[in-house]
Amino acid sequence: MSKGEQTRAAILAAALDMARQLGLEGLTIGTLAERLGLSKSGVFAHFGSKEELQLAVLREAQERFVAAVLRPALAEPRGLARLRALFERWLAWSANLPEPGGCLMMAAAYEFDDRPGPVRDALAEGQRAWRASLTRTIRLAIDSGELRPDTDAEQFAFELFGVALAAHHDTRLLGEARAREHALRALERLIADARAT
Amino acid sequence: MSKGEQTRAAILAAALDMARQLGLEGLTIGTLAERLGLSKSGVFAHFGSKEELQLAVLREAQERFVAAVLRPALAEPRGLARLRALFERWLAWSANLPEPGGCLMMAAAYEFDDRPGPVRDALAEGQRAWRASLTRTIRLAIDSGELRPDTDAEQFAFELFGVALAAHHDTRLLGEARAREHALRALERLIADARAT
DNA sequence: GAATTTAACGAACGGTCGCTCTATTTTTAA
DNA sequence: TTAAAAATAGAGCGACCGTTCGTTAAATTC
User: Fold this and answer.
1) A112 and A24 in contact (C-beta within 8 Å)?
2) Which of A47, B55, B69, B163 could form a disulfide with B186 if both were Cys (CB 3.0 to 4.6 A apart)?
3) What is chain B's pLDDT, residue by residue, as a tens digit (197 residues)?
4) A170 vs B186: CB contact, 8 Å cut-off?
5) Is the CB of A41 less than 7 A from some atom of nucleic acid strand C?
6) Alpha-carbon gap, residue A177 to A190, rounded angstroms
7) For strand D, is any atom closer than 7 Å to the CB of B98?
């Protein structure tokens, strides 16, 4: 890895940290440079514009999410085992994010939901991909016979997504300790209702 | 209503509109003044600080939410009728927000979830109150005998909250047309599972 | 080790930020 | 109608924004 690539990676890591606290818009090049002991223009040169920096940070967050949540769960056997592993890793990701700061993608979803542009596009694309992965995981549990064939995988994924959002919300804003328990019970209810009899 | 109160109300309405698009932090006094045809200092004088403006905007949003969602639903008879009315009004609120801009409180929840201060406090307090109203509505459906006595009202409220979050997310970021349908189905599943047999 | 590409700096740009202060106008009350 | 009070304007503060530019220092290649 060349010197430039090293620096870029270091900037990206720090920027991700900042953006998790302050949002992708609240992220500023000056503060970022100061935190890294670099000059503003030095940081700037690596990305060319703030929007490119935001895009890079978002992609970094998305990759980390996939690496921490989706990829390891794929090691589990298809079916409910994988679905449960996926969801538990998801909850762990959301609960174990380094303080301070929450999940960048969830925050960005609200920050950019009505700000057209490449950032919003990348964000929406990532969300769609994640939802598709969720749906696929559920569908595999149907195929394996653990869930009834008439189960609506998209509806299931929608509800599961909501459970994760609520857990994140309760934990971070309300400091609600039972959020994880609530979320796991919600998953089990989803499974129970769709379970093959 | 005195002249000052009139102006203040006009500022608040415009500020709420701006904050729904740009977030409470993205809201700026200069742009707000320009939009209203007032001077920056004229707008500023009504609130004394940006934080006070943010607080006032947040309270305004909370009051409007209560007036549009909770209060009318209280006219329905206690039980499932009121619960369904409440949820449907909630979905309508979220779907019919004037474009552009989403729900200020949901956005602020992510913007301020790790920014201690009065804004965060007011936000969390409002969320707790809303959750309590939800829980109470569910509990009344238990008391009326429509839901089983062993129903966990807090778990129910948690899941219902997640459904609303997911619906808002799918509608606004992904432009998913079936979000309302998904949400209503999720509510019916919640009810069916808790229904007295 | 020299040549050349790459990385980073530092100063400066026009703009906007929240905010302060002083004036002036407008509204309200006596 | 006049005096007090409230509301708004306007200029300006220091700080920071993203960005540009020319230059220097460092890393890489030959």
Assistant:
1) yes
2) B163
3) 787 789 999 999 999 999 999 999 999 999 999 999 999 999 999 999 999 999 999 999 999 999 999 999 999 999 999 999 999 999 999 999 998 899 999 999 999 998 999 999 999 999 999 999 999 999 999 999 999 999 999 999 999 999 999 999 999 999 999 999 999 999 999 999 999 77
4) no
5) yes
6) 22
7) no
